[in-house]
Specification:
By secondary structure, this protein is of the alpha+beta class. It has one domain (about 1-105): Trna Endonuclease, Chain: A, domain 1 (3-Layer(aba) Sandwich), CATH 3.40.1350. It has three helices and four strands. The chain has helices at about 1-15, 25-40, 85-95, and strands at about 50-55, 60-65, 70-75, 100-105. The chain has a four-stranded mixed β-sheet, with helices on both faces. Strand 3, helix 3 (about 85-95) and strand 4 (about 100-105) form a beta-alpha-beta unit. Helix 1 packs antiparallel against helix 2. The protein is globular.
Length: about 110
Amino acid sequence: MPGYANITRLITRLVEIDFSESSEQATREIIVNPMIDALGWDTFNPHEVAREHPVTGGRVDYCLQLKKKNRVFVEVKRVGTDLEDHQEQLLRYAFDGGVRLAVLTDGLV
């Protein structure tokens, strides 16, 4: 299974990196973009992986789309961020956007 092998390789590389001083942007570029790609989403296709997708009340970091429908919202925070403080925002985005699956991550959690 190629996806599993890609994810395993990515995780093996990531555990060797110290992210303690990383920004949210670095979390997106170094961890989240490669993980979305490893899961089989085309990160170069803005009709499949839309970044900074507008939603009611703001923008979600990633909107994963299939057949022109929003399927998954991904909200990224800096490594080490207390994610509980951001759950309500993402749930509101997902509810208002009619999306059933929403992922809140600091890249490691």
